Amino acid sequence: MRISTLLVLALAAVPLCSGAQAPAPPAAAMPLLTSIGDDVRADELRATISKLVGFGTRHTLSDTQSNKRGIGAARRWAKSRFEEIGRQCHGCLQIETPEQSATGERIPKPAAIVDVLAIQRGTGEPERVIVISGHIDSRVRDVMDAKSDAPGADDDGSGTAAVLEAARVLSKHKFDATLVYAVLSGEEQGLYGGKLLAQYARDHHWRVEAALNNDIVGNTLGTNGIKDATHVRVFSEGTRSTETPEEATRRRYNGGEVDSPSRNLARFISGLADTYLKAFSVRMVYRTDRYSRGGDQVPMLAAGYPAVRFTEAIENYTREHEDVRIENGVHYGDVLDAVDFAYLAQVVRLNAITMAALAMAPAPPAQVKIEGAVSMDTTVSWSAVPNAASYRVSWRDTTAPFWSNSKLVGDATSLLLKDVNIDDWFFGVSSVSKDGYESPVEFPGAAGAFNVAPAVANEK
Ligand SMILES: [Zn+2]
Questions:
Q1: How far is ligand 1, taken at its centre, from the CA of residue 253, in Å?
Q2: What is the pTM of this model?
């Protein structure tokens, strides 16, 4: 027996003492989620992005009247696609087009910001909402240039195609929770569509459990020539945007910097990739977005909703936000032929599987608490949630990225962990349905709570 094998066995025998921890082994696959992944098609994604590129430009300030060119035509086409998908599922999609007039640094004269939303209402707990979004607007180098061709195949034709394909695939199934497919505009001018979506969610009292924002998800060849077709980055904030000063003080003392609901959502997504996708995994990034850059998940976070950003593993900066041209033999511009559709399909599979997994699972437990200071044991408690048949208590080393230890309990609402010292571990709880669908892990207290109190959400 080799020394490395002995070491593995030794670590396996004493999991509570292991220092560096790998993610837990993949869970057993659910046939429904496998079939949802199998249903995602690269040719559908190609057809959508080809159509979007065909509108010439989709700049937020471009023509809204023409049926051939500009953002108006593009938005109307997206709406017609939702209508078509809705007909296939016998009217399962409610289509809404919230609109707001905006002006700002990048919008000198009032312009209409219009989002196109398709809502697949949940059959059991419709107030629980899972969102997927992408932005339909595009740009060239000059962010105010609304006339030049701005194909936006990857930024963010890829995200828009992800939203439409998720709708096509998921609308064939029924879910307890509500699924929202959101095509946003005004992103490049200042995240206007994301703000409008957050406002719409608040106005309609949605309990958003997860917002999956897809922005730049179809390229695999980096500016430096390095190719990566086997990872997607998932960005998540560490501490929540809506944390109060009192909550921050408590969190700074007891921990929780790496356990916002968005972060535990990212861990959940990473686990699904390991279970359901071959040769494709998540690179979690402990940041809200790429360095000093932004996206439509940001206004959702500001409203208190758990949200992550999906972005390709390696970006090509000669494609993004560029005028279409060839200069010194280098191709510039965000054109169709630079999109890797097989790769994009993998990203969309992960999104669709995540939405279905969340919507099939109960909500994460409410009011997770831990107690046990000056004791050898820790008591973890939580409030019951509808449709949970059991709960899983998880814990990990305070420096570990993934939950490593867990214990499944029945329908109890507390668990005494004997000889697990509260000082030495981070704890969390997930809810499990009778069929075995499991929610993301919720970290105790305000730092980790998924279920945003409406009062918090209404403050901003
Ligand atoms: Zn973008």
A1: 37
A2: 0.93
